[in-house]
Specification:
single chain, Glutamine Phosphoribosylpyrophosphate, subunit 1, domain 1, Rossmann fold, 3 domains, eight-stranded antiparallel β-sheet, seven-stranded antiparallel β-sheet, 19 helices, binds fructose -6-phosphate
């Protein structure tokens, strides 16, 4: 939520900041702004998308600057509430990702001391507090301010006549990029890929004093060394590459991202951890929660490991008794609720593993070990290739516990994924794009696949969708079935085939149009449903993948048919760093 970027060096900061913000726009896109520093601070900020408002920033110049793209928390999206925020005299500017929980109290005190506030944001208190402590030494003023803040922050601050940026992080991500006589700062690595592959992931409590050719990191007042790491993503990975949307590109990248994640394997330390686990608890949110649920079905039925799956947001307040390995599943590695749950598991002395796509992200710092997915940057807000890469990581754990029983299925899965991308879904799209409500149903691992199908549908097409265990529909939701309520049912061979077929007939009897995903050649199923979408008759694990991808395509094309903003759906942001 919210992306911040900073630059100091030999280039004009404005284009670097604007380009960097565009790369971070998936973190929030209701407004944006930049501030540059020369003899004075220049600020430009605007409601709406960067591409629509960036021209207005062209008059700002400087060799240092900071920028922000916003997902509103305190105060509606507006030009005034957009960051950067400045002090009374406009001599100091700050951008901030996170939430200052005690901002009301601080604001009251500051107003009592004569400070004039312009915005409704929590962030503005930071600018005024720095102002109170500023006597020409920005680092000292920031250091004096930070202990007064309660909450979470990644902050960048600049001051007039000062060729430096002071950066600080606590519970919000912040990465430095080291170039040749230039230094970058950003919420994640994506804005840095164009300029450098050398990055430093700051730790909670770090404060960095940054000038063009030098940076010093302090922790609790002492200088500390943070390792320079190399990023293995490249800038081409972040381009749309001729596709209409990032989401479509990312859907099409799945054969490769799945294959790469399988190929990378599991290192010895993670192997040992997985093999020693008597029970496994997974904590996750959203799409990652669905992959965790799919894992539960696969692990419990295929290799008899007891698995519990918890939503990060619930776990924190209602922590269950814990035994065994705790796995945090998070594409971004920065989801606040998942991190909080992971920290609680650590506090209870459980071994912890992070499954994430983001090298250096917070979950990798908190967990004992990391299993890194190899999906590459995912820019579309809706998770697609990260979802199947999470499945790749989790399926490897199942395979490991089953002594390699699924080696063959996993090493060939990318081929089936490639084939399913060619599946035509236009008839189903025509039905869904006319509907107000769509149900997605399945049994066993296809229940979480259905939940994920419904989540994709609602988040990008805004068509209301519910994912249900197929047997549950008649315990209430049947009341909603009409000839205008399509049901998407996943029905493949296996122990539940017969009962799924009966459920489909019951739904048909209530006049609901049925879109069924079944294995190619299943004419019996094809005859009883309205639209039949074949998936390859492969191993169960591979069917989980191919069925999921059909549902991604269905959501994507429905959203396009309804002319939605597919890559940036309304009200959302990709990385949910607030609780
Ligand atoms: C939906 C989606 C979200 C995320 C959720 C958790 O397409 O992307 O539901 O899955 O916000 O995010 P991560 O995996 O980054 O923890």
């Amino acid at each position: 939520m919210c992306g911040i970027v900073g630059y100091i060096g030999r280039r004009d900061a404005t284009p670097v900041l604007i380009q960097g913000l565009k790369r971070l726009e998936y973190r929030g896109y209701d407004s944006f702004g930049i501030a540059t520093v020369g003899s004075a601070i220049g600020v430009y900020k605007k409601t709406g998308r960067i591409s629509e408002g960036e021209a207005g920033a062209a008059d700002l110049h400087g060799y240092a600057g900071i920028g922000h793209t916003r997902w509103a928390t305190h105060g509606e999206p507006s030009d005034t509430n957009a960051h950067p925020h400045t002090d009374c005299e406009k001599k100091i500017a700050v951008v901030h990702n996170g939430i200052i929980e005690n901002y009301s109290e601080l604001k009251r005190q500051l107003e009592g001391r004569g400070h004039i506030f312009r915005s409704e944001t929590d962030t503005e208190v930071i600018a005024h507090l720095i102002e109170e402590h500023y006597d020409g030494d920005l680092l000292a003023a920031v250091n004096a301010t930070l202990p007064l803040l309660k909450g979470s922050y990644a902050v960048l601050a600049i001051a007039e006549n000062t060729q430096r940026i002071v950066a600080a992080r606590d519970a919000s991500p912040l990465v430095l990029g080291v170039g040749d006589a230039e230094i970058f700062a950003a919420s994640d690595m994506t804005p840095l890929l164009e300029y450098t592959e050398r990055v430093i992931f700051l730790e909670d409590g770090d404060v960095a004093d940054i000038t063009p050719d030098r940076f010093t990191v302090y922790h609790e007042g002492r200088v500390v060394e943070r390792p320079v790491e190399l990023i293995d993503w490249c800038v081409e990975d972040t381009r749309k590459g001729g596709f209409a949307h990032y989401m479509l590109k990312e859907i099409y990248e799945q054969p490769q991202s799945f294959y790469e994640t399988i190929r990378a394997g599991i290192d010895d330390r993670v192997r040992q951890m997985v093999m020693e686990a008597g029970e496994i608890t997974l904590v996750a949110c959203g799409t990652s929660y669905h992959t965790a649920l799919a894992f539960k079905y696969m692990a419990e039925s295929l290799c008899s490991i007891p698995v519990r799956v918890e939503l990060g947001s619930e776990f924190k307040y209602f922590t269950p008794p814990l035994r065994g390995l705790v796995i945090a599943v998070s594409q971004s590695g920065e989801t606040a609720d998942t991190i909080a749950a992971l920290k609680m598991a650590k506090a209870r002395n459980c071994p912890t593993l992070a499954i994430t796509n983001m090298q250096g992200s917070t979950v990798t710092r908190v967990a004992d070990e990391t299993l890194l997915m190899r999906a590459g940057p995912e820019i579309g807000v809706a998770a697609t290739k990260s979802y199947t890469a999470q499945l790749a990581a989790l399926m490897q754990i199942v395979n490991l516990r089953c002594e390699g029983a699924f080696d063959d299925a996993l090493s060939h899965a990318h081929l089936a994924i490639g084939d399913i991308l060619l599946q035509d879904v236009h008839e189903a799209v025509a039905l869904c794009s006319k509907a107000d409500h769509v149900f997605f149903v399945g049994r066993g691992p296809f229940y979480p696949v259905s939940m994920e199908g419904a989540l994709k549908m609602k988040e990008i097409s805004y068509v209301h969708a519910e994912g249900y265990a197929a047997g549950e529909l008649k315990h209430g939701p049947f009341a909603l079935l009409t000839e205008e309520t399509p049901v998407v049912a996943v029905c493949t061979p296996g122990p539940t085939y017969g009962v799924m077929a009966s459920n489909i007939k019951e739904m048909k009897a209530r006049k609901a149009p049925i879109i069924a995903l079944g294995v190619a050649g299943d004419t019996e199923l094809a005859e009883i449903v309205d639209i039949f979408i074949p998936i390859p008759n492969t191993h169960l694990l591979v069917q989980v993948l191919t069925a999921s991808i059909v549902l991604q395509l269905l959501a994507y094309h429905t959203a396009c048919a309804l002319q939605r903003d597919v890559d940036k759906p309304r009200n959302l942001a990709k990385s949910v760093t607030v609780e």
